TrEMBL record:
It comes from Rhodomicrobium vannielii (strain ATCC 17100 / DSM 162 / LMG 4299 / NCIMB 10020 / ATH 3.1.1). Residues 145-430 form the SAM-dependent MTase RsmB/NOP-type domain. One of its GO terms (molecular function) is RNA binding. S-adenosyl-L-methionine binds at residues 263, 308. It holds the Pfam family Methyltr_RsmB-F. GO terms for biological process: RNA methylation. Keywords: Methyltransferase, RNA-binding, S-adenosyl-L-methionine, Transferase. This is Fmu (Sun) domain protein. The active site is at residue 361. Belongs to the class I-like SAM-binding methyltransferase superfamily. RsmB/NOP family. The keyword RNA-binding applies. CDD domains: AdoMet_MTases (cd02440).
C-alpha cells in the first residue's frame, strides 16, 4: 500500500472506534480481515498510527482545534512521528486512496498549534474527570506522569529462571537490541520501535516455546519479586488470571512449596495450563475457577496471599490507550468495591504471621493507598510492611514511590521508573 492509503485506512479505523465504541484491537483485526491484500508492514504502520493517535488524543485534538479522527491522526504524524506539515501534505494528495488535501485550518494546527494554554488533563492526555485523582497521586508532576503514560511501551520479558538465564535470553534477542531492564534482575527489554516499524513477535520465537521467558512488564515482575514468596511456602494467588504472576512466584519459590491459583473467570484462567507446562512450573495447584468453595480449605493456612486485583488499568494506558477514554466513574466505583471484597476474602486465608500482597496496575489513589487505608481500618489484625525497604532488599537499590501523598505501598510509573503503572502494598497478619 502507498503511505497515503495507509494514512486513510488509519483515519477510517479511528472513525470506527469513535463511532461504534469498539476496542482498538478489535477494530484493527476486523480491518485486517476485510483487507487481506494488506501486508504485515502495512498493518504495523496503520496499527501504530491508530494507537499513537489514541495515546495523545486529548492534546492532539487541542492542537488541531478539532477532535475528529482525521485531524487527530494528522497531528499524531506530526507530534509523535516527527513529520512536518509539508511531509503530511505530500501524503494527502487525494489520489489513489490517499486522504483529501490538507485544509487551511489543518495546516495552521500542524504549523502553529500550541498547548501552553491547555489545562493539565489536556497537556497530560488523561480524561478530565480524573484530574483530581492525578493531582492527588502526583501533585505538581501530574502532567509529566500523564505524558509518560501516553508514550509507547517497550516489550519486557521475564526470564524463567527454572529454564534459562538472563544472558541466554539477552543473546536470543540480540538482533532486536535487547537490554537489561533497569530494576528487575530477571528482566530483558526490547525498546519500542519508532514510527510505522513493526514490533518483534517474541512469542513466535523458539526461545518462548522452550519456556525461557514470558512477556511481562517490569512493573509486574517487581510486584512478584517483592511479594515475598519464599521456597516451601503455602501461597494463594487469588486473582491468577492467565497466570503471569503465578509463574513468576513459582520460579522464585524454585518449584517448591505450593501455590494455589484461583480466578473467578474460567475463560481468563484457561491459558494458565499451557503456560505452566511450558514454564516447567510444578508447584502450582489450579483451583476450580468461579467456585469460591474451593478456597475454603485454605482458610487461615496461607503464608502469603496475593491479590493481583481487577482494576481500571490506568497504569497500562501505554499498551491500551483506547481504554483511558472509555473508562467511566461508574467503572472505577465498581472496581473499588470488588477490590475491597477481595481484600476481605484474602484476609481470611492468611495464617497468623502470614502476609497479604495487594497489587494493581492502576495509578489512582482510590484503588491503591485509599483501598489499603480502608482495609487496615476495618481489619485491626493486619499491619502494613515497609515495601520500600523490602524493594531495596530485593532490588539492591532504593526505589522511591511515585505517589506524591502520604500512604502505604509503592507506586511505580513510566515517568518515574520506566515501568507500567503498578501499585504494590504488603501487609502482615499480626493477630488472630
Ligand atoms: C489484574 S488481573 C490478574 C492478572 C494475573 N494475576 C497476571 O499476573 O497475569 C485480575 C483478575 O482478577 C479476576 N477477578 C475479578 N474478580 C474476581 C473475584 N471476585 N475473585 C477472583 N478473581 C477475580 C479477573 O478475572 C482477572 O483475571
Amino acid at each position: 500500500m502507498q503511505t497515503g492509503a495507509r494514512l486513510q485506512a488509519a483515519i477510517e479505523i479511528l472513525s470506527e472506534i469513535r463511532e461504534r465504541g469498539r476496542p482498538a484491537s478489535v477494530a484493527l483485526a476486523d480491518w485486517g480481515r476485510s483487507h487481506r491484500f494488506a501486508g504485515s508492514g502495512d498493518r504495523a504502520w496503520i496499527g501504530n498510527l491508530v494507537y499513537d493517535s489514541l495515546r495523545r488524543k486529548g492534546s492532539l485534538a487541542f492542537l488541531m482545534n478539532c477532535d475528529e479522527p482525521r485531524p487527530v491522526a494528522l497531528a499524531a504524524l506530526h507530534c509523535s512521528w516527527g513529520l512536518t506539515a509539508d511531509d503530511i501534505a505530500v501524503l494527502c494528495s487525494g489520489e489513489e486512496h490517499a486522504p483529501e488535501p490538507l485544509t487551511a485550518a489543518e495546516i495552521a494546527g500542524l504549523e502553529s498549534g500550541d498547548l501552553s494554554a491547555a489545562p493539565a488533563h489536556v497537556q497530560g492526555d488523561y480524561p478530565e474527570w480524573l484530574a483530581a485523582s492525578f493531582a492527588a497521586a502526583f501533585g505538581a508532576r501530574a502532567i509529566e506522569e500523564g505524558k509518560a503514560l501516553a508514550n509507547r511501551a517497550p516489550v519486557d520479558l521475564r526470564v524463567n529462571t527454572l529454564k534459562a538465564t538472563r544472558d541466554k535470553v539477552l543473546k536470543a534477542f540480540d538482533r532486536h537490541n535487547a537490554v537489561e531492564t533497569p530494576w528487575s534482575p530477571i528482566g530483558v527489554r526490547l525498546p519500542p520501535r519508532e514510527g510505522g516499524a513493526r514490533n518483534p513477535n517474541v512469542e513466535a520465537d523458539p526461545a518462548h516455546g522452550k519456556g525461557w521467558f514470558e512477556v511481562q512488564d517490569e512493573g509486574s515482575q517487581i510486584a512478584a519479586l517483592i511479594a515475598d514468596a519464599e521456597p516451601r511456602m503455602q501461597v494463594a494467588d487469588l486473582c491468577a488470571g492467565s497466570g503471569g504472576k503465578t509463574l513468576a512466584l513459582a520460579a522464585h519459590m524454585q518449584n517448591t512449596g505450593q501455590i494455589y491459583a484461583y480466578d473467578a473467570d474460567a475463560t481468563r484462567f484457561r491459558p494458565i495450563f499451557e503456560r505452566l507446562k511450558r514454564a516447567g512450573a510444578r508447584n502450582v495447584q489450579t483451583l476450580q475457577p468461579g467456585e469460591t468453595a474451593a478456597l475454603d480449605p485454605l482458610a487461615g493456612h496461607m503464608d502469603l496471599v496475593l491479590v493481583d486485583a481487577p482494576c481500571t488499568g490506568t497504569g497500562v494506558w501505554r499498551r491500551k490507550p483506547d481504554a483511558k477514554w472509555r473508562l467511566s466513574p461508574a467503572q472505577l466505583d465498581e472496581r473499588v468495591a470488588t477490590q475491597s471484597t477481595l481484600l476481605d476474602v484474602a484476609a481470611t486465608l492468611v495464617k497468623p504471621g502470614g502476609k497479604l500482597a495487594y497489587v494493581t496496575c492502576s495509578i489512582l489513589p482510590e484503588e491503591n493507598q485509599h483501598q489499603i487505608e480502608a482495609f487496615l481500618a476495618r481489619a485491626p489484625g493486619f499491619a502494613a510492611i515497609d515495601v520500600a525497604r523490602r524493594a531495596k532488599d530485593v532490588l539492591g537499590r532504593t526505589v522511591e514511590t511515585a505517589y506524591a501523598g502520604e500512604g502505604h505501598g509503592l507506586l511505580l510509573t513510566p515517568a518515574s521508573h520506566e515501568t507500567d503503572g503498578f501499585f504494590i502494598a504488603l501487609l502482615t497478619r499480626t493477630a488472630d
